[in-house]
């Protein structure tokens, strides 16, 4: 088997383990209503060994920080989406009306011979 395929598989497995740990931390944070869990609980929830947790993160605090960062990123994305949708919903009717007025002014200046 070529070496690059082995490296890709290994990288994919590492990424899956890391994400499983972060996902497990998010579930535990939700279940415990805060970061009140041990590394052993986290490893069991992620279905990895304690050593695997520490292969990916220096401390439990780093895992919690990664999980909270994902949560915060999702909240910010949600706010941005809502703000964009709200802004679009408010500006679209104004923009359409503005275009209609501009078109009406152009038509009226074309039909009135002395006006420019």
User: How far is the first residue's CA from the last residue's CA?
Assistant: 78 Å
Question: How large a portion of the residues is in β-strands, by DSSP E?
Answer: under 5%
Mean pLDDT: 85
| Discrete helix count | 4
* Rg for CA atoms: 28 Å
Number of E-state strands:
0
The profile of the biggest β sheet is: none
Structural class: mainly alpha
State the share of residues found in helices, binned by percent.
over 70%
Shape: elongated
Low-confidence stretches: none
SSE topology string: HHHH
* Count of discrete domains: 1
Q: Can you describe what's shown?
A:
With 116 residues, the chain is mainly α. It has one domain. Helices cover 83% and strands 0% of the residues. It has 4 helices and no strands. The protein has helices at 3-31, 39-46, 50-56, 60-111. Helix 1 packs across helix 2 and helix 1 (3-31) packs across helix 4. The chain is elongated.
